[in-house]
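for the writeup, i need someone to sanity check this before i put it in the appendix. the sequnce is what the collaborator sent (i think, or maybe the updated version? ugh). structure was predicted straight from it, no edits. if anything looks off just tell me and ill rerun, i have time this weekend
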Amino acid sequence: MQGNLKLLYYTTAYHATHGGSTHSTHFVEAARKHPLIKEVLIFPNTAVTATTNVGSKLRIALRSIPLFQMFFFYRRNTFKLVELVSVIKRDNPDAILIRLDSNFLQLEKLRDKFPKLLIATEVNASPFDETFKNVLFPSLFRKKERKHLSRTDCNFFVSDYLRNRIMGDVVTPHRDFVVHNGVDINKFKPNLRNGLTRGTPGG
């Protein structure tokens, strides 16, 4: 039976050269085979490339300064938003799955603009543990992160620790799920040579 769900997958990793691309492309392949899904659209549909000129070196230096991290964080949340809204209006997807990086402020804007759109996120890390770990007023930004993720229909976290760290006392079991990173144990098994076992370095 052919499904009727049109899914928009929003990720800057799909066309990237790092490991996130493998994850994203495999997800799309699997989603397109799912019986409930009619179509999977990818946004953005071209690679997002970083500049490598002198200006980019200056930005790297500025990003290490807490005050400027605030500026870059808000700037990141305007990235591709106008184009994304245009795509949603044009293609009218039933649901959007967002592989979050630092763009969670876009969630509330999408919720307010498209109240009937199902919004789900894939959360692999908090930007305030990585890219924006030196941001000014970190507790304020973590509260914003929790608030905006609370506006979605569904969030998928890679660990219980990450879910609890981000969502805290507003964790909702039917909205905030944990999908652990893992392996197929039929293909990958512990190396038992020389007495090595699971959890042993080199195993």
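The CA atoms of residues 162 and 181 lie 12 Å apart. The beta strands are 5-10, 37-43, 95-99, 118-123, 154-157, 176-178.
thx in advance!!
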